[in-house]
Amino acid sequence: MKTYGRFPLTLVRGAGSRVWDDQGKEYLDCVAGIATCTLGHAHPAMVQAVTQQMSTLAHVSNLYYIPQQGDLATWLIENSCADKAFFCNSGAEANEGAIKLARKYGHTRLGIENPVIITAKASFHGRTLAAVTATGQPKYHKNFAPLVPGFAYAAYNDIAALESTIAELEQDGPQVAAIMLEPLQGEGGVNPGDRAYFQRVREICDAKKILLIMDEVQVGMGRSGKIWGHQTLGVEPDVFTSAKGLGGGVPIGALLTKDYCAVLEPGDHASTFGGNPFVCAVSLAVCRTIEQEHLLANVQARGEQLRAGLAAVAAKYPNVIDHVRGWGLINGAVIREDAEMTAIEVVKRAMNDGLLLVPAGPKVVRFVPPLVITAAEIDEAVEKFDRALAGG
Ligand code: PMP
User: Binding positions for N(2)-acetyl-L-ornithine (predicted)?
Assistant: First the structure.
């Protein structure tokens, strides 16, 4: 089955923020497995953790205590507002867990028979059936009906839209168990959350005992300049999910929650591979390297440098680029609606010139490099982006 639209490119090797194709051509990687290769490629700390854990004990069942899982949970809890962690294998799976948790919370704590979860229009939460239903972009729903019941959608960063959605749902009493939002919408066009909006959402959730779930799959694990996007926003969720950058390239997802809403009990939810010694040891190496190499400071500095560079390029092409937006090392150059240029065209031209970029929708060119990217590499990315706009 042809499930992926692919570029004619075969990557065979990587080191740091660079990758090479099967012809030996070098590329600067500002895709990083789509915001996943936190430490870049072949980082010694990951290689060491992979080798060490694979040669000791790669997998055991969750029937037994897994120390690496305990250590990773401890790190995540010490570096966030969460009290409890559950591990799985992907972002979609972490969100499925969050959805189940929210429904059980709705049933058992709020006494709601058919709990509804409100998500944002233009959001993206994954491709499994509940996660794709949560996703607020109709193009991902097409031909997959019947979708999962119990979801409603409100415009992002729009408090009036959210309030009227809640009011409509709750005409006859409580219906809403959770509001689920990305701190910054990644697939929806690298659109950062508004602080005042999120503060107001937090207040609404507190007043109505609704859970605030944040999907940190794309923006979490340091990419925003803080470990979590919600720390960048200054608003604490009750529940949040992580994946992608959490494993730096190995498949791991996490569902994190505060104690008071940790309603899942033994027998409610599980995953065979979830949190096995191998992935947890590698993920822990990613977490510790973020600290040891002071990567958050690098993300902040390189992010500012990138946005300044992109803004200067945007000023050269005012008829093409509308504006540049983002946090830390998740940034988008937004192409004007009335410009003929599309994001995919820019991405193709940059690829020919040795720079990997990825669209976020038809009109946004996304830059999500490894968190280890250097100042010289950022300059190179900006130069190549400039050349791509000039005509490739
Ligand atoms: N949530 C967000 C915000 C994402 O960006 C993605 C992936 N693009 C997912 C969930 C799904 O993650 P996965 O592909 O690991 O299932």
Answer: 127, 271
- Tell me the mean pLDDT per 10 residues along the chain, length 392: 94 98 98 98 98 98 98 98 98 98 98 98 98 98 98 98 98 98 98 98 98 98 98 98 98 98 97 98 98 98 98 98 98 98 98 98 98 98 98 68
Q: CA 163, CA 154: separation in Å to the nearest integer?
A: 9
Domain boundary among 292, 324, 345: 292
Overall number of domains in the chain: 2
**Per-residue tokens: 369:** 């490099």
CA of 280 to the centre of ligand 1 (A): 19
The answer on 213 and 68 residing in a single domain is yes
Tell me whether residue 29 is one of the annotated catalytic residues: no
Domain of 103 in residue numbering reads as 46-292
* Closest C-alpha to ligand 1, atom 10: 125
Q: Which atom of ligand 1 is nearest to the CA of 126?
A: 11
pLDDT of residue 392: 54
Evaluate: CB of 124 within 6 angstroms of ligand 1: yes
Cα–Cα distance measured from residue 157 to residue 192, given in angstroms and rounded to the nearest whole number: 9
Query: Is ligand 1 within 6 A of the CB of residue 218?
Result: yes
Q: Are residues 203 and 74 in the same domain?
A: yes
Instruction: State the catalytic residue, choosing from 104, 215, 384, 385.
Output: 215
pLDDT in tens, 113-161: 999 999 999 999 999 999 999 999 999 999 999 999 999 999 999 999 9
Longest dimension (CA), the chain: 64
SS3 71: helix
Q: How far is the CA of 253 from the centre of ligand 1 (A)?
A: 10
Q: Give how far Cα 12 sits from Cα of 22, 25, 46, Å.
A: 6, 10, 18
Binding site membership of 191 for ligand 1 (Cβ less than 6 Å): no
Residues 61 and 114 occupy one common structural domain: yes
**3-class DSSP state of 333:** strand
**C-beta 358 within 6 A of ligand 1:** no
Using a 6 Å cutoff on CB, does residue 96 contact ligand 1? Answer: no
What is the Cα–Cα distance from 284 to 75, expressed in whole angstroms? 8
pTM tops 0.80, yes or no: yes
ipTM of this complex prediction, to 2 decimal places: 0.99
